[in-house]
Amino acid sequence: MAINKWWGRDPNERYWLEITNREDIGTNLLAPQVNDRGEPYWSYALVREVRPGDLVLHWDKNHGPGVVGYSHARGEAFASTIVWQSRGTYGRQRSASGPEPAWEAPLGGYRELKHPVTQARLREIEATIRALRDHLTEAVAGPLYFPFALSGTRPLRAAQGYLTKLPRALVEFLPELRALRQTAVSEPHESEVPDLSPASLPNPCKATGYGRQRDVQRRQAVERYAMDLVLSHYRSHGYEAEDVGAHSPWDITARKNGAEVHVEVKGSTTAREVIDLTEGEVRHAEGIPTCLVVIDQIELGDDLRCHGGRWRSWSDWSPARGELVATAYRYPLPAGGHGGRPSV
Q: By C-alpha distance, which of 79, 178, 192, 198 is closest to 133?
């Protein structure tokens, strides 16, 4: 069936909401290709629209109800099969059946939210959610596949369906989803919570307020400040500490009494729940014991002077491949490119 891909022109619209009572949340997205009447159903067909690196939030009907965690898509959706259980994997009453054609999208890196977004919490901001939906309805021609049912007679509840499209504006509004929205982009700007009043709701095709720190000098000042703090820390404890980041896939080598410590340092002006890593940093930490130090909430003045910062560290750190989320690609150019400027 044809899907109204209203989010297609905005690369920051990377969020989905699975509504389920399954016990293996975060394993995959899995839905039959047709409904009970043998017809294509939009909520099942949306599984095919999920792209690698997209973020899938999970609404658990059994425990909450509410959003309990999130995963990232690890590959393209593909044709698969599903066997319905007596209670229905997604809450539908139905007797057990044999394998049926299904759509499946692999997921990975499941994380439970530190603070689940409960149904009660969403009902507290129902007016804002309603304003967002109304704004999108005016801006978008066709169905939204909105994740919540809103009416004048009943309080907010999850939509009747399996997979729904979660607008990024709502993700960015909820502080409980800070880790999720940081996972979807690279370096966030200082502004963390956008205004979602009806007059200021973002255009569905407008770029998000997040992205890499645009001022290279400011970013370098923060990185240098964090490095100097960590170097001073190790030196004050009797280590010979050296900045090796210019020629090594880690930042600091610290030596003391014949022992050597490799340190990866990340600095940020915002509260970070997610960091960016290069392939070299990941491979090094997989093979050699590494200490990860993150100093966030650094105060940066207009004169590029830094102050303060919150320290966190992880000894013997090794990032799990299944929890890495792609935010960029390296693409080998194909043969056949034309030399010179493009014809116009």
A: 198
- pTM: predicted TM-score of the whole model, two decimal places: 0.79
What is the phi-psi region of residue 32: left when phi exceeds 0, alpha when psi lies from -120 to 50, beta otherwise?
Answer: beta
Task: Report the pLDDT value the prediction gives residue 65, as an integer from 0 to 100.
Answer: 95
**Cβ contact 47:163 at 8 Å:** yes
Q: Are 35 and 79 in contact (CB under 8 A)?
A: no
- With beta carbons less than 8 A apart as the criterion, state whether 82 and 99 touch: yes
CB atoms within 10 A of CB 262: 19
Q: Do 300 and 327 form a contact (C-beta atoms < 8 A)?
A: no
Residue carrying the six token digits 């509504």: 19
- Domain map of the chain by residue range? 15-200, 216-323
User: Which residues, including other chains, have CB under 8 Å from residue 252's CB and lie 6 or more apart?
Assistant: 227, 230, 231, 234, 241, 242, 243, 244, 245, 262, 263, 265
- Give the CATH number of domain 216-323: 3.40.1350.10
Task: Please state, as a whole number, how many other Cβ atoms lie within 10 Å of the Cβ of residue 330.
Answer: 5
CA 14 to chain centre: 8
DSSP 125: T
pLDDT digit string (tens) for 127-145? 999 999 999 999 999 999 9
| Dihedral sign from CA coordinates of 131, 175, 54, 120 | negative
3-state DSSP assignment of residue 330:
coil
Average pLDDT of every residue of the chain:
88
